[in-house]
Amino acid sequence: MADFHDAIAQHKHLSEEDQKKAGQATGTDMDEKHKKFLASLISLLDTKEMDASVPASLLKKETYDALPETSRNAVDFAILNIADQLRRIENYFRSTQTPNASPQLQTMIEHFWDMKSRLEEKHGDVLKF
To answer: Staple 30 to which of 49, 81, 106, 110, CB 3.0 to 4.6 Å?
Structure first.
């Protein structure tokens, strides 16, 4: 914890403008797999195959319906968080205030993958993507 406090102490004299710049997303590149996944995700949203504001639209209905009730309940709970993360990714991507490729967006996608992976590990391939 001392390292953290030392790092903060070194930068205590930043101007307000520099502080604002430090909090902005950087416009650097992302890995190719992240770009491809993002393009696929945005395509599904644009064609209305999925809607981040309708969590059930993210599910493969036939796979979901075949699950036991306890698994469906777990998926229902998890899909709310997954849809919320999808909304964050979409909003970040579509915003004119943020770059379409950045380390921040890449981290959001990785978090999305992690949630998806944990869900499918326990309940099978229930998501459309």
So the answer is: 106
